Structures are given as structure tokens and as C-alpha cells.
């Protein structure tokens, strides 16, 4: 097991990336990329991890892009009605937790759905209170809208992670 796979390193690393991204925006992007590169370099299965991080990150960013285009989110640095680059990198960093600090939730899909709903929706409220995003429908309505989104999205990301792992193993053994 590489050191970036250890529960506390992975969990605390993601929290540092979240706070840096929310508070510094695009300014944090290069630091996040450097941490992701370090994560891959120190991972025992960097190719599988990269597949999961890229695929899950793109899925998550696509969901946020849809919500932004739909008018749920407005970002201060909005360009072409898409979320800022720091959010894409934040999604990559979050995806680096799916096989590591959040992997225990794979066995508990209902719990993953409930925790994903509450924690996922809450992060947008926190980000809005810190000025990283504006919620067009206010805190409560956005929270209620994001609950079912994250109740479905988080378990789907865990399933995607499993499928990508299985696919990689079956093609490389």
C-alpha cells in the first residue's frame, strides 16, 4: 500500500484540497495538480487509480456543469456558463478518495447514498457561505435539490470505481 492510500493521509489530503480550492479558487489549481501527481506517484496501482480519478472526476464535473448551466450554481469566475477549472481539479481530488478513504462505503450502498446525499449537498452550502459559489435558489432549496442528486451520484461513483477496477484487472491478468 502506497502512503497516499492510507486512510488518514488520503482523507486529510482531500480536506486540504477542498479548503484550498474553495478559498483560493483557480490559484490553487497547480497545487492540486501537484498533489494529484504525488498521489499517483505514491500509489500502489497508479494506472487503475488514474482511470478512476479521471472517469469519476469527469462524471462529477459533468453533473456540476449541468447544474451550472441549469442556473442552480453561479461562480464568480464564470466562463462560458461552465464551472471554473478549480472545480474540475477538486472533482479529481474527490475521486482519489473513492478507492482509498471512502472505499469502505462500497459495501454499504444505502449508507453511501444517505451519507453522500447529506455530505455532498452540505459541501455546496459550505462553499457558498465561503464565497466560492452562489446558489441561485438559496441555501435550503439548493440543499433539498442536491440531496437526491448526491444520493444517486455518490453510490454510482462507487460502482463506477468497482467496474473500472474489474475491467483493469481482467485486461491485465
Give a verbal description of the structure.
It is a single chain. With 173 residues, this protein is mostly helical. The chain has one domain. Helices cover 70% and strands 2% of the residues. It contains six helices and two strands. It has helices spanning 7-24, 29-41, 46-69, 85-95, 109-129, 138-171; strands at 73-74, 134-135. It has a two-stranded antiparallel ribbon. α3 runs antiparallel to α6 (138-171) and α5 crosses α6 (138-171). The protein starts with 6 loop residues before the first helix and ends with a helix. 37% of the residues are buried. The chain crosses the membrane at residues 16-40, 52-73, 79-98, 110-127, 139-160. This is DUF2878 domain-containing protein. InterPro entries: DUF2878. Keywords: Membrane, Transmembrane, Transmembrane helix.
Write the layout of secondary structure elements.
Blueprint: H1 7-24, H2 29-41, H3 46-69, E1 73-74, H4 85-95, H5 109-129, E2 134-135, H6 138-171
The tally of domains stands at 1
Outline: globular
Measured on Cα atoms, how large is the radius of gyration?
A: 16 Å
Largest sheet at a glance? 2 strands, antiparallel
Amino acid at each position: 500500500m502506497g502512503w497516499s492510500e492510507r486512510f488518514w493521509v488520503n482523507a486529510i489530503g482531500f480536506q486540504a484540497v477542498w479548503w484550498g480550492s474553495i478559498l483560493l479558487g483557480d490559484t490553487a489549481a497547480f497545487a492540486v495538480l501537484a498533489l494529484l501527481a504525488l498521489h499517483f506517484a505514491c500509489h500502489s496501482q497508479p494506472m487503475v487509480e488514474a482511470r478512476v480519478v479521471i472517469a469519476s472526476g469527469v462524471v462529477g464535473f459533468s453533473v456540476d456543469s449541468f447544474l451550472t448551466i441549469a442556473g442552480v450554481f453561479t461562480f464568480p469566475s464564470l466562463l462560458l456558463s461552465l464551472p471554473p477549472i478549480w472545480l474540475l481539479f477538486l472533482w479529481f481530488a474527490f475521486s482519489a478518495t473513492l478507492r482509498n478513504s471512502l472505499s469502505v462505503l462500497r459495501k454499504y450502498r444505502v449508507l453511501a447514498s444517505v451519507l453522500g446525499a447529506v455530505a455532498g449537498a452540505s459541501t455546496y452550502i459550505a462553499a457558498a457561505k465561503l464565497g466560492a459559489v452562489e446558489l441561485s435558489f438559496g441555501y435550503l432549496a439548493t440543499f433539498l435539490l442536491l440531496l437526491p442528486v448526491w444520493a444517486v451520484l455518490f453510490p454510482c461513483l462507487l460502482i463506477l470505481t468497482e467496474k473500472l477496477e474489474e475491467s483493469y484487472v481482467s485486461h491485465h491478468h
